[in-house]
Amino acid sequence: MADEVSWSADRPGDNSELLYYQADTAAYYGQLNKAREFSRQAVAAAERAGRKEGAAGSEAAAGLREALFGNGAEAKREARIALNSSNAKDVQFVAGLALAMVGDRERALELADALKSRFSQDTVVQFNYLPAIYAQIALFDGDAARAIEFLRVASPYELGLAATSNYSTYMYPVYVRGQALLAQHQGAAAATEFQKIVNWPGVVLNEPIGALADLGLARARAMNGETEEARKSYNNFLSLWKHADPDIPILVAANAEYAKLK
Questions:
Q1: Pair 122, 157: CB distance under 8 Å
Q2: CA-to-CA distance for 117 and 215, rounded, in angstroms?
Q3: Domains plus CATH for the chain?
Q4: What is the pLDDT of residue 32?
C-alpha cells in the first residue's frame, strides 16, 4: 500500500484517492493519529488536483471515523468543513450520519430531509443513506424501536454495492440496527446483525465498522450471557487494535468491559 501511495505522489488525483483508502486502513486498526494525517494529505492532494468534492469526501469520512470512535467535537468539525465545501449526496450522507451519531440532531435531520427531496428516485439514497441517518437520529433520541423501524426498508439492499459511490458504506444500516438492538437489550438479535458485517468483509472492506463489528458482537454476546463467546469477540477486536492509539474513547470502553469478564 505504501509503495502504491509513493508511486502516485506526482499524480495528485490518484494520490488523493489512495491516501483516502490508506486513512481508512489505519483507522480500521485503531491508528487514529495516522488516519488523521493521511486524511490531511488526501485533502491537500485533492485540492492540488482541483477535486473539490474529493477533498470534501475525505473530510466527511474523517468526521464519520471520529464519530464512530467517540470523538464528538472532532466529528462535528470535520463534518462541517466537508459540508461547507460540497453538497454532493455522498458527502452529505457521510457527514449527516457522523453528525447524527454525535447528537447534532437538527443539522443531521436537515441534511437527511434535503437528500430525501433532491434524490427521490435514487435507490441508494432512499434505501440505504436515509434509513441509516434517520435511524441514528432516533437512536440518539433514545427511541431504538423507531430506529429499527426506519431500517426495515434497508434490509433487501444492505449488501448491495453502488457503482456510483466512492464510499464503501453499504453496511452502515446493519451496524446502526445492531446498535439499536443493543439499546433494546436484544443481545441475540444484535449479534446476528454484527455477525453479518463479520461475514461479509468483501462488502465492508476497510471501513472502521469492519473492526467495530467484533466489539458489537462481544457486547451482544455478553448481554446474552455467552461469556466465553464474548471473550473471544473482545479478543478479536483487541487483537485488531493491538497497535491502536490507547486514548480512543471506544477502545477505553472496550478494555474496561473486557476486564469485567475476566
A1: no
A2: 35
A3: 2-261 (1.25.40.10)
A4: 98
Q: How many whole angstroms separate alpha carbon 252 and alpha carbon 174?
A: 24
Q: What is the pLDDT of residues 170-215, one digit of tens each?
A: 799 999 999 999 999 999 999 999 999 999 998 888 999 999 999 9
- Would the pTM count as exceeding 0.90? yes
Tell me the one-letter amino acid at 66: E
Contact 30, 236 (CB under 8 A): no
| Number of helical H runs and strand E runs in the chain | 16, 0
CA-closest candidate to residue 174, choices 187, 160, 158, 156: 158
Please state, in angstroms and rounded to a whole number, the distance separating the CA atoms of residues 201 and 230.
20
Averaged pLDDT, 207-228: 97
Task: Transcribe 125-169 into DSSP letters.
Answer: IIIIIHHHHHHHHHHHTT-HHHHHHHHGGGGGGTT---TT-S---
User: In this structure, what C-alpha cell is assigned to residue 207?
Assistant: 471501513
Q: Which amino acid is at 98?
A: A
206 secondary structure, DSSP code? T
CB 19 within 8 A of CB 38: yes
Of residues 34, 118, 47, the one with CA closest to residue 81? 47
What are the pLDDT digits (tens) for 113-140?
Answer: 999 999 999 999 999 999 999 999 999 9
CA distances from 261 to 230, 244, 248, 250 (A): 8, 21, 21, 17
Of 71, 58, 81, 127, give the one whose Cα is nearest residue 103: 71
Cell matching residue 249: 474513547
